[in-house]
């Protein structure tokens, strides 16, 4: 505020001028105080809104963290389940292969060596080649823990383990065994 200049009167300053100056000074001070008080209130409201937003974001962050942990646990469960199913399928295929090998070896023993030995060995080789293809397709996990891949061979393990036809009928339909005349 500018310095006040007061006229000199008998025994001091002009009291009207001093009073007017003090009133102006008081009004300016009150106005400045009111502005600062309003600014303080405004800043407190901004701080309150920001603290509320921070609290909301912290809740959201915890929720996202919980979701990530749950997703990781679910992924681990799915991987464990897939590995177990993979292991069971491999065991079933090995059992199926063992039964097929046993059947053909028994069939070779029953047929005369001249007639069926070559035919049965060829059939065994064909089955081994097919089984190798199936095992290669099922070899979907390696040391780097790859994701499971879909198998599009049309092979159904349940149908292979529980066929509707006899083994002779299956071999005949595949052309690996001639129809026997009984």
Give a quick rundown of the structure.
The chain has 4 helices and 2 strands.
- Give the total of domains: 1
**Number of separate strands:** 2
Shape: rod-shaped
Please work out how many helical segments DSSP would assign: 4
Strand content: under 5%
Distance between the amino and carboxyl termini = 127 Å
Describe the SSE topology:
Layout: E1 8-9, E2 12-13, H1 15-110, H2 113-138, H3 157-161, H4 167-174
Antiparallel strand pairs: 1-2
Helix pairs in contact: 1-2
Write structural notes for this entry.
The protein has helices spanning 15-110, 113-138, 157-161, 167-174, and strands at 8-9, 12-13. With 182 residues, the chain is mainly alpha-helical. It has one domain. The chain has a two-stranded antiparallel sheet with strand order 1-2. Strand 1 and strand 2 form a beta hairpin. The radius of gyration is 47 Å and the shape is rod-shaped. Mean pLDDT is 77; it is low at 141-152.
Give short descriptive properties of this protein.
182 residues; two-stranded antiparallel sheet; rod-shaped
């Amino acid at each position: 505020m500018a310095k006040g200049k007061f006229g000199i009167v008998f025994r001091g300053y002009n009291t009207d001028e001093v009073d007017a100056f003090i009133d102006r000074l008081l009004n300016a001070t009150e106005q400045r105080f009111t502005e600062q008080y309003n600014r303080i209130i405004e800043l407190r409201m901004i701080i309150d809104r920001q603290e509320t937003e921070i609290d909301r974001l912290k809740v959201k962050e915890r929720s996202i963290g919980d979701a990530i942990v749950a997703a990781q646990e679910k992924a681990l469960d799915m991987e464990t389940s897939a590995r177990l199913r993979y292991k069971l399928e491999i065991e079933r295929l090995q059992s199926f292969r063992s039964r097929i090998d046993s059947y053909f070896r028994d069939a070779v023993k029953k047929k005369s060596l001249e007639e069926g030995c070559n035919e049965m060995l060829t059939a065994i080789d064909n089955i081994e080649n097919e089984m190798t293809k199936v095992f290669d397709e099922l070899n979907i996990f390696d040391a780097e823990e790859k994701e499971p891949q879909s198998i599009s061979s049309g092979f159904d393990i349940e149908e292979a383990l529980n066929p509707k036809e006899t083994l002779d009928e299956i071999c005949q339909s595949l052309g690996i065994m001639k129809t026997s005349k009984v």
